[in-house]
Design brief:
single chain, 207 residues, alpha+beta, 7-stranded antiparallel beta sheet, 7 helices, 21% strand, elongated
Length: 207
Amino acid sequence: MEIANRALTADVIAALRYWPSVIWGGQKNPPDPVDMTVLPPFFNEVLQSLPWWNRDWKVERVQPGLPAETGDHRCEPAVRFTEVSIPGTVASGNGESLPFLAKVGFTGDWLIRFQAKIGDVVIGPAVAPAGRSEPHPFGRMLTGLMDLRGIPVREMARGAGLSMSTIHMLRRGHNPNLLQARLIAGILDMSEADVRVIAGLDDGSTQ
């Protein structure tokens, strides 16, 4: 089962969009109550589709979420992207419980993104096969930035003074070092500071 690119039911969407603590212009305040009990089974279904998820843990309770919505509120709901954070609690069969927070991104009735935080551990769907480390998100962002600018791998390698194999490695999820980030920033016409943040190298280090 794929976590992303799956259809959401109308009652799940209603629960995800139930934000009684948020005032939106033109909407009823407070909003009419919705059935929030549909969310724990939905979250459990998503989490249990992860092959490494401990099925002894289940989402028991949730609260209304807080949205972080991007896009124009005037656009059609079917093309508007919404991301919402839903707090709650997970519990195991032995009675242990932990705080839970789900971040759900969706467009229309399609799930686009899902991430959960159990206690202080962030979890999500794996990209790499079992036994391999997950690719750094810098690779996907570098690929997108190069594609938007029409910069092929050969041109990036030549301009940055790096090998094509290095650029391919970075695009596949290998995290750059500070020198590589500096060289890549120049070709992307971005500040070194911005690229360092994207690469997770924003700790102020100069090494």
